[in-house]
Amino acid sequence: MGLFTGLATLPLAPVRGVVWLAEVLQEQAEAQLYDPGRIAAEMRDIADAVAAGEMDEQEAAEREEELIERLTHHQRPAGDF
Fold it and tell me: Are 55 and 46 a contacting pair, CB within 8 Å?
């Protein structure tokens, strides 16, 4: 980037900073959402809740299905829908 271009686009610097921050936050949120270790921990929590009688089998199955979907969604190749 040349000096003139840098000076001309200087007023956009705060916008670029906010966009960059939003992208970083989105990447971090997705990394946590699709983390296999976190999903496995949530599966254990569901099993513990069923064993303790805090959750019935139907609700547990629904939540486990959501977790499996998160796990498989993240593992698909980018172009595969």
Answer: yes
Q: In this predicted model, what pLDDT tens digit does every residue of 22-77 receive, in sequence order?
A: 999 999 999 999 999 999 999 999 999 999 999 999 999 999 999 999 988 866 55
In 3D, which of 16, 62, 24, 20 has the Cα closest to residue 43? Answer: 62
pLDDT of residue 51: 96
Q: What type of residue sits at position 46?
A: I
Q: How many Å apart are CA 44 and CA 36, to the nearest integer?
A: 12
What distance in Å separates the CA atoms of residue 13 and residue 32, rounded to the nearest whole number?
A: 29
Q: 81 falls in which pLDDT band (50, 70, 90)? A: very low
In whole angstroms, how far apart are CA 59 and each of 42, 65, 76? Answer: 14, 10, 26
Is-contact 70 33, C-beta < 8 A? yes
Measured CA to CA, the distance from residue 60 to residue 54 in angstroms comes to: 10
